[in-house]
Amino acid sequence: MSDLVNEIIFGTSVVVIVLSTDSAENDFDRSLFTWPHWQGETIPEAHQNWKAVFVAHDRTFRGLYYEGSTPEETLTIRVPHTTLTDALWKMVQNDSCAVLCTGLTGDPSAAEVTTALKQGMLQAVLVEALFA
Predict the structure, then answer these.
(1) Per residue in 106-123, pLDDT tens?
(2) pLDDT tens track, the chain, 132 positions
(3) Which of 89, 102, 85 has the alpha carbon at shortest distance from 129?
(4) Predicted TM-score (pTM) of this structure
(5) Measured torsion, CA atoms of residues 122, 4, 108, 95, in degrees rounded to the nearest 10
(6) SS3 readout for the chain
(7) Sign of CA dihedral 44, 24, 113, 119
(8) b/e for 16-55, b at 16 or more Cβ within 10 A?
(9) Cα angle value 57/91/118 (rounded, 5°)
(10) How far is CA 48 from CA 54, 68, 69, 89, 97, in A?
(11) Could you give the C-alpha distances from 18 to 70, 71, 88, 110, 114, in angstroms and in order?
């Protein structure tokens, strides 16, 4: 799994984390990422089971946490540490939430994310930010 952190402005700002689940090295159920299509006009619907994990001392995004109904269904997905810009870190701290989004592969640029959003290619959910 790779990740890319972007900033998209609505009436309010949220951190958008674009996830690429096409890597063969990951051993998890990709059906967990079948989120609702995101039109980009509003913030996506909340998903209570997913969390985005950040570390405060170095202001990095570290991964995802899926809170399953049993310990066997609970999942932690670690990603390479991604340092957030000052503006993104402030948003995460102030709003304690982030948008997780799928629908692209590889390492898309911010422009590619914006284009995919406009074309309705993305699936997304609003999640709680956890701080370690």
Answers:
(1) 777 778 888 888 888 889
(2) 445 555 554 445 677 888 776 554 455 566 777 899 987 778 888 999 999 999 999 999 999 999 989 998 898 888 888 899 898 898 888 889 998 888 887 777 778 888 888 888 889 999 999 998
(3) 89
(4) 0.79
(5) 50
(6) CEEEEEEEECCCEEEEEEEECCCCCCCCCHHHHCCCECCCCCCCCEEEEEEEEEECCCCEEEEEEECCCCHHHCEEEEEEEEECCHHHHHHHHHHCEEEEEECCCCCCCHHHHHHHHHCCCCEEEEEEEEEC
(7) negative
(8) bbbbbbeeeeeeeeeebbebeebebeebbeebebbbbbbe
(9) 130
(10) 17, 10, 12, 22, 11
(11) 27, 26, 14, 10, 11
Whose tokens are 């989120």? That residue is: 35
Please give the structure tokens belonging to residue 48. Answer: 């209570």
> Which residue bears the tokens 């063969």?
24
For the record, the structure tokens of 65 come out as 């946490």
